[in-house]
Amino acid sequence: DTTIALVGDAPSKRLLDALRAKGAIHAMQGQFPEAIEALIRAQGVVEALDLPVDTGVLQNLTGIFIHLGEFDRAIEYAERAEKDQRTQSPTPPNRMGVLQVLSTAHIGAGNFEQGRRWSQEALAFARANGLPTGSVLNNYGYLLRDEGQFTEALAVFEELASTLDPRDAPEVRAVAEKNLGETLMRLERHEEAAPHLQLARELYETTDVRTNRLELYPVLIDNLEALGRHADALAAMREFKALSDETTSTESKTRIGELENTLDLERKNQQLAEAAAANELQRAENAALQARQERARALNLALAASLVAAAAVLLRVGSRGSRLAL
Hints:
Elements: H1 2-7, H2 13-28, H3 32-48, H4 55-67, H5 71-85, H6 92-108, H7 112-128, H8 134-146, H9 150-162, H10 170-186, H11 190-204, H12 210-226, H13 230-325
Helix pairs in contact: 2-3, 3-4, 4-5, 4-6, 5-6, 6-7, 6-8, 7-8, 8-9, 9-10, 10-11, 10-12, 11-12, 12-13
């Protein structure tokens, strides 16, 4: 905001850069309304300066709306970015970025055919240009599995797993193992699914990603029951319940803390407002008192002047009376 205030509101390259940066910072901080406002303003500056369409701004807006679950708006911005890129010369990573968010937006919206089309195009482009394929493979695998195409989904998840390294983050590897295990389970290949689900369980235990752990347990329990391992399923069920209760308790405490902080902030704001009102009232009273004192001094001066004038008249009358008496 300080930078924007310094460069002014007139369309300029500096204002465009400042708005892009502001949008990115707000997005990273989860302040999405402010991010959207800044990026839309950046679009306006691009148009005012008659510059080529900034597909990076459109891509960022797409990403935000995907995060917010507003897939129709995400598709709108992604399609504009993809169309405009065809008239430009984007770098391979920039082109890949737009293809990736376009496929993700369609998958999120449940558009199977468009999700498949753009996922395949993004994968072909990534492979041709030596770019990472992890995110696209992951989303494409979910799409295929949700559509009941388990064999195809398994091939996609196997390709994704082959791109991972043992040094990758445990939660990333855990997601890949869980996807393999769940897809094998859907194919009723329970024995093959078991080691993948167990490895996902062990990897999650080294992290604190509770949401993902909670998603894993129902799949793990169903697979153990399908294998007739009822004691293991019961043990996993107890772990699931304990984690669920702990997560609920933690979330409740967090929410209570947030509410307390909000109430505390509201109380402080109320106290500040009351103090400001009291100060304003005191200033008003002081001003009124000062005005009264000024009026009183003016009246006193007028009265004194009147008394002097009256005394002078009396003196003059007294003088005349003395002369007449003689």
